[in-house]
Amino acid sequence: MLPEKIKHRLEQQIAGAEHPRELVVDVMFALQEHFGYLSDEAVAEAAGMLDMTPLEIEELATFYTFVYRQPVGKYVIHVCDSVVCWMNGVESIKDYLCRQLDIADGETTADGLFTLLPVCCIGYCDRAPAMLINKKAYGHLTPEKIDKILEKLKTEALQKTE
Amino acid sequence: MYPQVLFQNRKSDRIATLEEYRQSGGYQALADVLKNRSYQDVRQTISDAELLGRGGAAFPTGMKLTSVAEDAPFPRYIVCNADEMEPGTFKDRVLIHADPHMIIEGMILAGYAALAEHGIIFIRPEYENAARILEREIAVARKQGYLGPNILGSDYCLEIVVHRSGGRYICGEVTAQLNALMGKRPNPQQPPPYATEKGLWGMPTVTSNVESLACIPHILRNGQQWFKDLALTQSAAGTKIFAVSGKVNRPGCYELPMGVRLSEIIEEYAGGMPDGSEFKACLPGGASTCFLPREHYDIAMDFQTLRDIGNRLGTGAIMVFDQKTCLVGATLNLIEFFTRESCGWCTPCREGLPCIREILQRIENGQGEDEDITRLERMCKHLWNAYCALAPGAASPVESLLKYFGDEVRQHIRQKQCPFKESQ
Ligand SMILES: Cc1cc2nc3c(=O)[nH]c(=O)nc-3n(C[C@H](O)[C@H](O)[C@H](O)COP(=O)(O)O)c2cc1C
Ligand code: SF4
Ligand code: FES
Predict the structure, then answer these.
(1) pLDDT per residue as tens digits for the range A3-60
(2) Structural domains in chain B?
(3) Are A98 and A104 in contact (CB under 8 A)?
(4) Is the CB of B271 inside 8 Å of chain A's CB atoms?
């Protein structure tokens, strides 16, 4: 169930829009933030709020890279695999990440912390190889740097649950 | 040092404030225009300045504004395209982080030229920081009376909002972007009707790139001749932000006059190539332009000169490849990108790109055969029949690979392996 508070906020936003549909991505992002991903329930909620059919939501949800229709980890790691990062050795960076997290591309770690997904150029080619974790960019990646980042996020997650 | 126009307030560690923008002459053009100049006059000045769109297609901005008819209905829309998803391109991100008010003022002026009352900045989700900066500075501008009802006491009204994308390359294409903005699946829509006639919600809509809009305040303040004189070549106008990446010592964004030589950009500004690297080729304007070989290393970088050699300046995103990099592998990577990002609407693109990817993969893996070259040529021709410009853009690296680096492709086929594998 979507908490009344979030629902109310979104409904107010929708009521204030001249064309409610223009908010569909914002609504999907908000629901995704609450549910962790865009669950079936979230699709139904979005459709209800925006007066669209669940199918219309579905055709958008499956189109956009940053809308996740399946459960993802707390941290979604999008590693850029486009040409500049490729030139700068992203393959070995990705292998390293897979080994450290013990998952393959597209998978989530057993503790539910990390999901690894490929992504096209994220616009940080000047700092290739680069990746995005929950929309924050990290560049000039090296194994050492990755160790540090993962360590920091793990601690952060632990602190949050405590 | 060449004059810095768009980057004049750029700092290494922070965003220019409104005060700094104003001290450099910011919002003077707006005040002057709203007080003294008609919207037709603004259109004319932008046309005379010969500003060509910096988003990749090089369409004249003045002509686009003028195509909004005098008697076109209201409300009208001005859209700033900050989607910037083509591999190699990051200039708009840097520009937003350098001087957001320049873009806001440019948008207001372009909005006035179209008599638009709604402004929308369409931005990719990877640029969440930039989106927040813009939202914050829009609020600042509004407080100062630069946005909202009766801007600076005039009759002109404009509101600007930031629209976050869900993230797909095709959303950068104007017509797909309009669908995205309307909450529809972002497939392109071939004209007619043109967006300036019937765009968002059926109303006239002008879409311009971030960098194109940022040029407008300077053109209106300093005049069309000044803008044209910034370029080093006769046919060009203005400066260009070159986003340089790949095998150079100092990748980054450099604002240089249109028509500056490629060799100068690489050697003087991007810090030359790393030790042991030699220039083999570059993509001069993003992933959808053609490989530019060594023989054109000294070319003048402007729209016309690159068109003359069958290439395109695109967005001015220069990706440099050295002699140790396999261009079959690079092309395969680029096609991987286009295949993933194809919106799937039309057959040549949806089916043609995976086919090209498979052939390139075979060649790279040492399983290619001579006929694969003709197969690639044939498939590229099909791409030109696709519904939108994504597919012809994808054909460019492949066609130029065959044209300039055919020997390298044949070497893969003959040796039954990638000749670069050992050296990598
Ligand atoms: C597949 C595709 C993606 C595009 N992506 C962008 C983009 O991210 N940003 C942009 O400004 N233009 C992009 N364009 C070009 C736009 O369609 C359009 O020409 C441009 O935004 C107009 O602005 P301008 O005239 O100022 O260049 C893209 C075009 C295609 C075909
Ligand atoms: S060319 Fe590709 S991106 Fe463009 S409409 Fe066809 S399938 Fe979609
Ligand atoms: S190619 Fe990786 S960030 Fe651009």
Answers:
(1) 999 999 999 999 999 999 999 999 999 999 999 999 999 999 999 999 999 999 999 9
(2) 18-229 (3.40.50.11540), 239-322 (3.10.20.600), 327-415 (1.20.1440.230)
(3) yes
(4) no
Residue B214 pLDDT grade (very low, low, confident, very high; cuts 50, 70, 90): very high
Average pLDDT over residues B33-58: 98
Ligand 2 centre distance from Cα of residue B346 (Å): 5
Give the model confidence (pLDDT) of B254-294 as tens digits: 999 999 999 999 999 999 999 999 999 999 999 999 999 99
Tell me whether A17 touches chain B (CB under 8 Å): no
What is the whole-number distance in angstroms between the Cα of residue B213 and the centre of ligand 1? 13
Residue B222 CA, distance from chain mean position: 24
Q: Is the pLDDT of residue B404 over 80?
A: yes
pLDDT grade for B424, boundaries at 50, 70 and 90: very low
Q: B380 CB under 6 A from ligand 2? A: no
CB of A31 closer than 8 Å to CB of A74 = no
State how far the Cα of B113 lies from the Cα of B127, in Å rounded to an integer: 28
**B172 CA to middle of ligand 1, Å?**
5
All residues of chain B having their beta carbon less than 8 Å from the beta carbon of residue A28 are 166
Q: How far, in Å, is the centroid of ligand 1 from the Cα of B161?
A: 19
Residues 6+ apart with CB under 8 A from A154: A113
Dihedral of the alpha carbons of A101, A103, A106, A111, in degrees to the nearest 10: -60
When CB atoms are compared, the residue of B167, B245, B336 closest to A125 is B245
Which CATH code for domain A75-161? 3.40.30.10
Region label for B344, one of left (φ > 0), alpha (ψ between -120 and 50) or beta (otherwise): left
At A7 the pLDDT is: 95
Whole-number pLDDT of residue B1: 85
pLDDT of residue B169 exceeding 60: yes
Predicted pLDDT of residue B422: 64
Q: Which residues of A touch B97 (CB under 8 A)?
A: none
pLDDT tens column, A90-146: 999 999 999 999 999 999 999 999 999 999 999 999 999 999 999 999 999 999 999
Q: Is the dihedral of CA A55, A58, A64, A66 positive or negative?
A: positive
Per-position DSSP letters for A87-139, written without gaps between them: HTTHHHHHHHHHHHHT--TT-B-TTS-EEEEEES--S-GGG-S-EEETTEEE-
Nearest to B300 by CA among B316, B279, B322: B316
Q: Right CATH number for A4-63 from 1.10.3470, 3.10.450, 2.20.28, 1.10.10?
A: 1.10.10
Domain ranges in chain A with CATH number 1.10.10? 4-63
Q: Where are the alpha helices (DSSP H) in B125-271?
A: 128-143, 174-181, 210-222, 224-230, 262-264
Q: Which atom of ligand 3 is nearest to the CA of A84?
A: 1
Q: Rg of chain A's alpha carbons, rounded to an integer?
A: 18
Name the residue in chain A with its Cα closest to that of B250.
A126
Instruction: Output the residue whose Cα is nearest ligand 1's atom 24.
Output: B53
Residue type, B258: M
Listed residue (A79, A14, A70) closest to A39, CA to CA? A70
Which helix (H) or strand (E) element contains residue B35? helix B28-36
A84 touching chain B per CB within 8 A: yes
Ligand 2 and B395: CB distance under 6 A: no
